[in-house]
Amino acid sequence: MRVLFISNPRIGSAFPLVPLAWAMRSAGHDVLFGAAGDGLAVELAGLDVIDVLPGAGDRRIREAQRLADPESFASLTLPGAERPAAPADGFVPWALPEFLAVAHAWRPDLIVSDPAQTEGLLVAAALDVPIVLHGRGLLRTAGIPRAIRRLCRAFDDNGWDLPEHIRHIDVAPASILLSEPDGWPMRPVPYNGGGVLADWPREPSRRILLTLGTAPMGAHGSATVKRILTLAGRVDAEFVLALGDQAAAIPDALPRNVRSVGWVALSTILRSCAAVVHHGGAGTTLCALDAGVPQLVVPDGTEAVLHADAVVNRGCGLRCRPDELDEDVLTSLTGAAKFRANAAEVRAELAAMPAPADLVPRLAELAGTAAAARSASVAPPPQPVAFGA
């Protein structure tokens, strides 16, 4: 079976697809990624990837997405959210021809896509192949295809409808759901890249990790970093700043109990931490849950607010604004046994979920069923493709 993974240009959206891709590879299936920008980093996991937008950096791609149809995408509201979201991983009109060219040349039997990556649904519709929408946070994805169908004119421009065979993979543990289950459950095995391990994480410490994801750090993130640096000297803990490329903005002179490490695999460093402070990203939230570590979420964005509320409601941590971050908050985070106990419960719940390898037979069956249905019908001749927004 040939499986095409379609990712958006962000590491935080591409990396969650890697464990399932490797499960497919390990079962003998052929896997190819179609990605762009920072999403090309999946090659570091030993996976084949085609750059569908050569030379287009992440910043240019995001701006093109924003300009494609700002009014429509501003009206897309995430399930359970009070405010609308304008997803940065929305539709880029000039990306569709490239994704289609890759798909027509490679002829996949199945497509696996980020749920909000519009090109995944469009390519599946054009080729009449099944698609699996791979969740990456605590939100359910069943309503997303209908919203995209309503907002994206390329469906009507080409006479396409949603693919007949759509399935969903949900990676959120049942006790922390933001809505009812609507897909196949799968454990979100953390993948953050690898590296040579340092000695210091093995040293016992009351360690608090600060990470703000892989997206560029704005004013909100800068305010969080400044508060941590201001408070660090007054808190009995070691602070580790894992800020990736943004570590260059950190002052050279740090408090004695603060360490800046740049890029680090979260799934590795979190095992040695007493708590984590983060922005509410899907991957970071799930990675912390998988490690059984209490969380302080300083949410930046609509989806992050939902993740923060879910963490608080499950009793796995706290949330606050940057200006509310103080010594009492940090002390409560590391000192309350209930946070660690609840986080340990969720960790056990995650460990009991089906592994990516357990879903491979289901995916193969889905592709086989769709192929049999196609062979039993007479397909119309291919039509010229329009690439409007």
Description:
This protein has 389 residues and is of the alpha/beta class. The protein folds into 2 domains: 2-187 and 354-375, Glycogen Phosphorylase B (Rossmann fold, 3-Layer(aba) Sandwich); 200-351, Glycogen Phosphorylase B (Rossmann fold), CATH 3.40.50. 38% of the residues lie in helices and 13% in strands. The protein is built from 15 helices and 13 strands. The protein has a 7-stranded parallel beta sheet with strand order 3-2-1-4-5-6-7, sandwiched between helices. It has a 6-stranded parallel beta sheet with strand order 10-9-8-11-12-13, sandwiched between helices. α2 packs across α15 and α5 packs across α6 (118-127). The longest helix has 20 residues, at 356-375.
CATH architecture descriptor of the largest domain: 3-Layer(aba) Sandwich
The end-to-end span amounts to 31 Å
**CATH C-level of the largest domain:** Alpha Beta
Mean pLDDT: 85
What do we call the CATH homologous superfamily of the largest domain?
Glycogen Phosphorylase B
The value of Rg in angstroms is: 21 Å
**Overall tally of structural domains:** 2
Oligomer: single chain
Please state roughly what percent of the residues sit in beta strands, choosing from under 5%, 5-15%, 15-25%, 25-35%, 35-45% or over 45%. Answer: 5-15%
Query: What would you call the structural class?
Result: alpha/beta
Q: What's the SSE pattern?
A: EHHEEHHHEHEHHEEEHEEHEHEHEHHH
| Unreliable segments of 5+ consecutive residues | 67-90
Give the fraction of residues assigned to helices.
25-40%
Number of helices: 15
Would you count the extended β strands for me? 13
